[in-house]
Specification:
With 150 residues, this protein is mainly alpha-helical. It has six helices and two strands; from the N terminus they run ααααββαα. It has a two-stranded antiparallel sheet with strand order 1-2. Strand 1 and strand 2 form a beta hairpin. The two termini are 18 Å apart.
Length: 150
């Protein structure tokens, strides 16, 4: 493990730059999905979509709150925003008549897919001059960083 203060300062500085740009990119992605979509609700929408793949029985608000580490009240506000924009809907849980599951609407799915495709094209364009090894290393190191930040 490297504890060289100068190198760690470089890492911290570059992470800060990266996070500022990532926030700006997330804002742009949110408005691409829907002009009135805020960044926080965009993150919830993405998480609902991602969890749907791993939770075939359906996605509950508590699942999303847990994944994003959000308070119940914050989740309720974001779900209300996404519903009002027609991007998600609450559907009955077939296993519990009292419960509701969250589902991305067809409109929400199309808008989100278009925004993700555009983002992937921008990433591909940005990394065009990179070698395949550099892209592989970046993915490996980002995965490691994300795993260690848990």
């Amino acid at each position: 493990m490297s504890s060289d203060p100068e190198r760690l300062a470089d890492v911290e500085r570059e992470l800060t730059r990266f996070l500022r740009r990532a926030r700006a990119a997330s804002t742009a992605m949110a408005t691409q999905v829907h002009p009135d979509l805020d960044v926080a609700s965009y993150a919830v929408l993405l998480t609902i979509r991602e969890l749907r793949e791993s939770l075939p029985g359906g996605v509950r608000a508590a699942d999303v709150a847990g994944a994003l580490r959000l308070h119940k009240s914050t989740m309720s506000r974001n779900i209300a925003v996404l519903e009002s924009l027609g991007l998600i809907e609450r559907v009955p849980d077939p296993d519990d008549a009292r419960a509701r599951l969250l589902a991305v609407t067809p409109t929400g799915g199309r808008s989100l897919a278009a925004a993700i495709d555009a983002r992937r094209q921008r990433v591909a364009e940005t990394h065009k001059p990179w070698t395949a090894g550099d892209v592989r290393d970046l993915a490996r190191l980002l995965r490691r960083l994300n795993d260690d930040l848990v």
